[in-house]
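BUG: 3D viewer hangs when loading the predicted structure for this chain

Environment: internal workstation, default settings.
Expected: structure renders.
Actual: progress bar stalls at 90%.

Input used:
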Amino acid sequence: MKEEDFLEALLTVPDIIYEPLISRNSKYVAFTWINVHPNADVFVVPTDGKKRPSALTETPESTFLVSFAPDSRSVIVGEDKDRNERVRLFEVFIDKPKRMIPLTEENPPFFLRGGALHPNRRWLIYGANYDLERKKEIEPTWVYRQDLETGEKMVLAKPTKPTWLIPQLNPQGTYVLYNRKELHPKGDQYWLVDIEGKEDREILNFGPKARIDAVWLPDGERVAFITETKDGKPQKYYSLGIYDIVKEEITWLIDDSKRNIERIRCPINGHHLIVLEYQKARVRPSIIDLTNMEEYKLPKIEGSLVPIGPVTENEWTGLYYSSTQPSEIVRFDIKNVDVSSFKPLTHVWELTKIKREDLVPAEDFEWKSKDGLTIHGWLFRSKTPTKRAIIYVHGGPTGHVDDSIIPEIQYLASQGFNVLAPNYRGSTGYGVEFEDLIRVHGWGSDEQEDIWSGVEALIEHGIAERGKIGITGTSYGGYSAWLGITKAPDLFAAAVPICGMTDLVVDYQTTRPDLRPYSEQMLGGSPEEVPEVYYERSPINFVHQIKGKLLIVQGAKDPNVTPKNVEEVIKRLDEAGIKYDLLVFEDEGHGILKLKNQKVLYRKMVAFFKEAL
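Structure tokens produced before the viewer hung:
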């Protein structure tokens, strides 16, 4: 396939970018799809497989699924109109697609989190970093109840510290579950507030630095949670428990140091808890029957299968994918999990010209870091022999690259580059201890050595050649690209940082207020508390060391890693006489999502790396 044809075909591969949700009546799965329309949109598919997916939204904006209405008649969607992350919520009825009924204000003076419709269909629950009385944006996110008939907004809970907070309404509409970070930027405490805002109490607290992730169970009286601190002692693994809000008691379900549980989900339509365990970034799911607490582990298969929710006693819907299999919603038998028997609901292969043989499979690749720690990643080999290599660094850093289709990687591999995607320390998918290692010395330190030692491993294995290695990534991956070209100038001949931090002080001061605790926990405090760390870990202070080629990419409306990062670094580059190319997308925010812009970016990136390497 010709280069131009391959890119066009590659960008027709549908990608489910947000978690799909099943309706309470089990009849539908709703999800966000990208690369089907020019931007992200919300789709729905019947679970009986009798109809193909249909679009619930079709806008030029980034529109994503938020939640299902309790009566299964509609969904709540969020629209990021200007890619500035100031989301507006809409309701869309399943039988009236593309009719978006506005629920909240356009371009609000705050950042909105979540969005759950109450069973009475009158109240909407969400989080917003806004003080209604003072009409002022604030750092903490408060829990709001909005009356959709009168427009009245009522504050249910007022956390005092900023955090990433998405309120969860129980199925009965009586309580809201939400998280706080009142004690330390790393730790979580879960609180419960009644729907009238009269009783707001802490229910889960295992210590100032203890992480917790919690979800409602369908009965609305119990909360499932995972934590890595138990009986006051930090662990190297997550334990799974259930908290009864009436009895105020905890029952521990799984407490096994050999198991790497990292996420839990609870479908709204049944009596099950989905447990997502990981081994080297591969998901290993299991399903707990809440009626008898029996656990069923899904067998290992080729590719990944993440359960979504039950349709019948034994048949479930799930998300199936790999690096040679586009994300597909399937129906499967949990008692006979066989890929050949999966029933596709989204029929993704019908929507793209790409064939399985056109895609490059992910290979396991391991190496030793500078301190002897084993690092795992994925190697995507070019189909034509080459010693040119690109390091693709994932964002987060709390996240990981899995065995899935990543268009940037596939396009680079198709154009004669070997691509390594390292899951450096701090990545999820490898256990609590591995994830916490990035916090030992903080951002911009040991995890960068993991990445750089991966480059040396490529060279030692004859996969790459010095002087022919580039680096790229978005967000934290962009930050790592900046660190690579500035602090390892003899290793990287070219870099394409996308929406990456350059000056960590500027980034702290200009980013969304609810994201600042993340910087504080990763760097040991605020810029005022540890100024020397912020200086030493900021690539802007080392641009004079750049030897390679540089292409800077930024979304002009990014509120996360703001354009101020680029403005400041350009001044330093100009002062140092360092040449660079600049590509700014005026209609993009944090990351380049629009189809037309991805085409421009990928072509520019490949041309840049071909010339530089």
